[in-house]
Amino acid sequence: MKEEILDEIRNQVVTELIKKRPWISEIDFQSESQSFRDLSSGLGPFTELLERANCTDLFINANDGVWIKEGAGLKKLDYLINEELLINFIRLQALRVGKHFDQAHPAIDLELSEGIRLHALFPPLVEHGVHVSIRVNQKQAHPNCNDFYGEVLTLIIESKRNFLISGGTGSGKTTFLSHLIEKIPEEQRILVIEDTREILAKHSHMLRLQSRGSNSEGLGAYSARELIRQALRMRPDRIYLGEVRGSDVLDLLLALNTGHEGSGGTIHANSPRDVPNRVAALAMTIGIPREGALALFASSINLIIHLDGKRDGNRISSISRVVAREKSVFVEEILSVDEDFSLENLLALKKALIL
Question: Cβ distance 332 to 321 under 8 Å?
Answer without folding.
Answer: yes
